[in-house]
Amino acid sequence: MDFKPANNIQDLQYFGEFGGVNPSISDSSTYTFLSAKTMFDTFEGNAEGCYLYSRHSSPSNLYLGEALAAMEGTETATVTASGMGAITPVLLQLCGSGEHVVSSRTIYGGTYAFLKNFAPRLGIQTSFVDITKLDVVEAAITDKTKVLYCESVSNPLLEVADIKGLAQLAKKHNLKLVVDNTFSPLSISPAKLGADVVIHSLTKFINGSSDTVGGVVCGTQELIDQLRNVNDGAAMLLGSTMDSLRSASVLKNLRTLHIRMQQHSYNAKYLAEKFENDGLKTVYPGLQSHPSHALFKSMMNDKYGFGGMMTIDVGSLDKANALMELMQEQNLGYLAVSLGFYKTLFSAPGSSTSSEIPEEEQQEMGLSDGLIRFSIGLDADIERTYKMMRACMEKLNIL
Ligand SMILES: *Cc1c(COP(=O)(O)O)cnc(C)c1O
């Protein structure tokens, strides 16, 4: 069957308890049982369709999880209270003391900090590698390695992972390939390319309204059951459960994701092309000049474009800060971390979202001081935005 991620969401049919067009929100932490035996069976994991306690699962969370699994083309999914609340349980479920992770070195700052500073306390070691070089990735694999970890499009450098190539490596060495797809929902479908587990921070594009944090793990029924197991499941026991009211609201926002992604991608491509033409050092996977442009193209679901994230390098942190302040003053966006909002958001990753990464490592990976990361908004008139941004840059002698 043709895999069309947005249709897969659209084609789900959920009714509310009283025929409402939205599913009813499960506003309960605990659930009654008609017989004591069913309660026992549910604890043992043998009572399909029965709810026990909302840290384990709830109808609203299952609805959202199913929709996200449909989008990613995985058997099922479990939603969590934040993106980090999805990432850390997966890593801890798949790796124990004495075991090893091979991870991209350009990943979300929080994930990097977890693997670098926290996981070693539990005896889990990580090798950070240049994920774009498959030979380097393979050389880092040892007989203790359990997980290959990357982001489809990396934060903040927008490096693109060769998911098919990495999936082959994972298969060959009997590892699980875990892909954080937060930057490229709909555009890239990692599970279809061979990833075992797909994670999102729902906080970003998927929810899209910067009003909550949230996360999801999409994978096999077996993995999701393990994560939720009452005896040894990391999601269940670490307790990063999403609240039902929130999952209902994220589900409503998910329905317009395909329209939003097209606009984010259209606007970002427009600005990236203009800025590059103006002579600015611009990184966007949709530009021919991007080292992985062809790779992204080979993996993408065309319709949704190359995503809403781009970076420019204006030479120094002082200039970056001045430009961001001026753009905010002109109401061209907000000086804020995070992404996927209707307004453009900008920040200097070296001193903010990636500040967990030591300075010399930042330099080595090409994360320079003057780098500004943009999450391009849904601006209705992107030409006007460009002209106004250009005026800001001219005023500050950046252009
Ligand atoms: C924001 C982000 C996360 C963490 O998600 P939270 O919802 O903030 O916990 C993980 N990965 C990427 C790529 C992100 O952008």
Description:
With 399 residues, the chain is α/β, with parallel strands linked by helices. It has two domains: 5-254, 3-Layer(aba) Sandwich (Aspartate Aminotransferase, domain 2); 257-395, Aspartate Aminotransferase, domain 1 (Alpha-Beta Complex). It contains 15 helices and twelve strands. Helix 7 (163-172) links the parallel strand 4 and strand 5 (176-180). Helix 3 (59-72) runs parallel beside helix 10 and helix 11 (257-277) crosses helix 15. It is globular, with a radius of gyration of 21 Å. The model has no long low-confidence stretch (mean pLDDT 95). The chain binds pyridoxal-5'-phosphate. Pyridoxal-5'-phosphate (PLP) binds next to helix 5. Residues 82-84, 108, 110-111, 151, 155, 180, 182-183, 201, 203-204, 213, 215 line the site of pyridoxal-5'-phosphate.
SSE topology:
Elements: H1 5-10, H2 36-43, H3 59-72, E1 76-80, H4 84-94, E2 100-104, H5 109-118, E3 125-129, H6 134-140, E4 145-151, H7 163-172, E5 176-180, E6 197-201, E7 215-219, H8 221-228, H9 234-238, H10 244-254, H11 257-277, E8 281-283, H12 293-299, E9 309-313, H13 317-329, E10 334-335, E11 345-347, H14 359-364, E12 371-375, H15 382-395
Parallel strand pairs: 2-3, 2-4, 4-5, 5-6, 10-11
Antiparallel strand pairs: 1-7, 6-7, 8-9, 9-12, 11-12
Helix pairs in contact: 3-10, 11-15
The structure holds pyridoxal-5'-phosphate (PLP).
